[in-house]
Amino acid sequence: xxxxxxxxxxxxxxxxxxxxxxxxxxxxxxxxxxxxxxxxxxxxxxxxxxxxxxxxxxxxxxxxxxxxxxxxxxxxxxxxxxxxxxxxxxxxxxxxxxxxxxxxxxxxxxxxxxxxxxxxxxxxxxxxxxxxxxxxxxxxxxxxxxxxxxxxxxxxxxxxxxxxxxxxxxxxxxxxxxxxxxxxxxxxxxxxxxxxxxxxxxxxxxxxxxxxxxxxxxxxxxxxxxxxxxxxxxxxxxxxxxxxxxxxxxxxxxxxxxxxxxxxxxxxxxxxxxxxxxxxx
Amino acid sequence: xxxxxxxxxxxxxxxxxxxxxxxxxxxxxxxxxxxxxxxxxxxxxxxxxxxxxxxxxxxxxxxxxxxxxxxxxxxxxxxxxxxxxxxxxxxxxxxxxxxxxxxxxxxxxxxxxxxxxxxxxxxxxxxxxxxxxxxxxxxxxxxxxxxxxxxxxxxxxxxxxxxxxxxxxxxxxxxxxxxxxxxxxxxxxxxxxxxxxxxxxxxxxxxxxxxxxxxxxxxxxxxxxxxxxxxxxxxxxxxxxxxxxxxxxxxxxxxx
Lengths: 281, 256
Hints:
Helix content of chain A is about 35%, strand content about 20%. Chain A is an alpha/beta fold and about 280 residues long.
């Protein structure tokens, strides 16, 4: 790939968006149903487009199909109808460009923290072969990443020796280690205390500002959505439909003090209203 | 109080206590040696017949370990198959339950017809007795993997064998080691049972000949030796388990 800029950066920045701005994720009339023909409709007729490098939050009441949206996008679950196109290709099975973090950290208890973080490199095709030969190099990279989320010194501890917040940080590192184009976050902070949660908002924001992956964050926390996202989608209660799309025009980097400013509160309040009206039968 | 020391000593003091109780029952109730020899008589017989017992104990140990090794290999392979394929599981599991319900002593005559009297039937009996718990445990360990863990790998585009290698097998290891402890003791049951019916060496054979000569203390000496070997082998695998799957046994405390 031709490079104009001189000087090597440790991680290549994302290329400038093409002029036609083909979205990296496009859902058209996508529905997801669990079970057979009479199954539960989790998501109905969803339409949305997410641009590359965008940080998008998906909010809605619990059980509204927010997580199902991620299952569609990641290819973990097929759509019943409609189309799901990611990076220009229709999704037919699990993608290989994703990093994903879940509500529970889901670290493997028989691996140390760094072992868990390195796991994707052993799997993802573009890294697996190189990983075996250049393990030390990748390990250094993982240690560096762990240090940026405040886990320096805990690399060789086992997950059960870490607190819930630390496990979630490690889980974020695991989702990021292979520099995925697409980062899917499924309520990753829901089980944490408010202080840790807000701390991790900044971790995510900083990592995103530095690397600029496309992020889809599913959450039921409106403040979290407004704090982190460029665009917020609101989803209705089951069967989930996309109710609205709101652009959050607050300057970055956003800081926790900003969340008490009227502008921030107004945006959160407007979203809250939308969910309230949408929830009305 | 040193809790650790107490825990270490407890098995020994319990054993000594039971032996003392046994001795008291024999002395106080004047039990005939022919019915129940006292621990002192049994240990006398142990000392008198050391050479004979050693030779036969070694034979039993070799037979058991050979059968157990076969059981581990077959049990792992079959467990992997059952745990990863629903078709194999549905098809084979009921057959295995049926097979395991057959008393192992009942298959010894069949083995004798096939292989003649000797070591082979004993090894094979130990093998079939030991394999079952291993199969069931490995299959359970594989079949109960949290789907969320699989998703962690699936989003990365992992293939089925990668999920098996990275999650399935490590996850099944604690189940596997737990089953080894059960399987080794069952292997002793299998080999000794076969030796009592169709062998010309081993503790089982020794006990049968001793009982034919009404040498009841020697019969009991044989029982004691088998029990001791069982404890020893169990301990070997318990240590192996603690070393290799320490992450699954984090606290030494039982639920109280």
